[in-house]
Each structure stands twice: as C-alpha cells, then as structure tokens.
Amino acid sequence: MPNETKVPIIAFANHKGGVGKSTTTLQVSYYLAEKFVLANDKKLLVIDMDPQGNTSTRMMGQMDLEGIGGTRTYQLFQENLDEIIPVKTPCGADLIYSTQNDTVLDDIELMDMSVFINPMGHLSRLLESGEYGAVLIDCPPARSRKLIAALACATDVIVPVEVSGFAKDALHGIMKSIDIAEQVNPDVQLTGVIINKFSSRSSRHVYEKNMLKEALGDLLFDQTIAFRTPLDEANSLAIPIWSMQKGSAKMAATEIQAVCAEIIKRTGLKVKNPLKKTVRKKASAKKVK
Q: 97 has which bridge partners?
C-alpha cells in the first residue's frame, strides 16, 4: 500500500532515452502545481537529474539558467551542503535545476561511486521542513551515478516506455538499478509503467501492449499516451497541454490528466480532492519475461 507517512518521491526513469521521461515530468508537474493542488497547501518540488537540462529550461521558461541563483543539482552530490535553496518556477513548483548541457553535472560520473548517497541525505533534510507534499525527479537515460542517486531518493519509480521489442530490455535494466538503490533505500519500488507514443491503429503496438500487460499485470498503467504533435509543442512552449486549443491537444490533455490521476492513486499523493487509492504491487525483474 502507499506509504501514509512519507512524502512521495517519484522518479521517472528509463535507461533508454527519448521515451518521454521529461515530457511526463513536465506535464505532471504542471498538473500538480496548477490544476490538482496538493493537500494542506503543500508545495511541489522537482529535481532535474538529467544533464541535458530540458525539464529545468522548460519549467523556468528560459534557456540560459546561469546566474539565476538557487541550488543546482550537481551540488546535491557534494558531501557537505549547508543549505538547499530551490528556485521558484512560473507554474508554482519549486525546482532544483540543471543547466542546458550541464557539464558539471555530467562530470559526476568521474567521481567515486559513493557520491550517489549524498543527494538522499540532503533531500531528507530538506523534506523535514514539511513544506513539500510531493517530489518529482526527472532521471537521466542510461545507468549512471545520477540515476542510482535518483532511485536512492525515490519511494516510487515510474517508467515511461515505447511499445517496441526493446521495452522489456529497458525494464530489466531499471529493475537492476532499483536493486542497487534498494541497498540504501529499501522503500524504493517500481510503481508503474506508462506506454508512450502509442498508436491504437498499429497492430504491432497493440500486440506489444498486450505482451507488456501479460508480463506486468497491474503495474502497467491503464492509460496510454498517444503520439500527438501538440504535446511536443506544449513542452517546447513550456505550457501545460490543456492550455492549448487544438482538437488533438484536447485529446492529449485528456490522456495526460488520466495518467496524472493514476499516479495520484498509485503513489498515495495527498491532494485537496482525494481520489480512491489502489493497491501497489511490487515487481521484480523475474516478472518481465
């Protein structure tokens, strides 16, 4: 069952790039910060662990983040960090950010593997303030110190995938990374898998979806996200998809909001209008055949 006492820390992760991690992080951030307000006026915190910095630049609405102040993600890997100062984004969420093509964050991979535990301790101290009701982490692709650090912080891992023969391989990889993170964070678990860029008209997509459902059971989200151009446009413009008026944007908004509702149920996020909670089932790599 969802943990009733801890703040849900949701990592969007996949070893494969281009599957929708940043897209999902962005739109869920907009939803929680603007549309579906967290209970007790708690704030949303977003952490961008990806050195590409796409989530950070879109959430801040500007490409050049040098000099904006606040805490950058790479600082979380320092052993000693006196104060964490998230920056406020236009949508209302707080952000610990990476700059575009953040070479300093990239260079974390050159450091000792032990640095991956530092963000966990710093984030725990920040959450002691009681200000935050949820944390979203956009993870980098590929197995790395940054990915393990994100999973070591997380309570929930949500994996966006595309329906292809490589989807199961990606899930195997994430499960191995979760196993590593569990050594320091026994609370982390795979909470769900979201199919992105899905076409119900493609017999191959439908077949692959059915295969994933057979392997994952209830861990597969009921709602899929179709490939729709307005969703990419919304992310480029740094706006929530439901603020666009195109017909296909409305369909995309319906899908994104349904995904957000599932995330709230699966993670036990506390919102002002409580939703019926569902039982989470913990997965193991053996389930993904």
A: 72
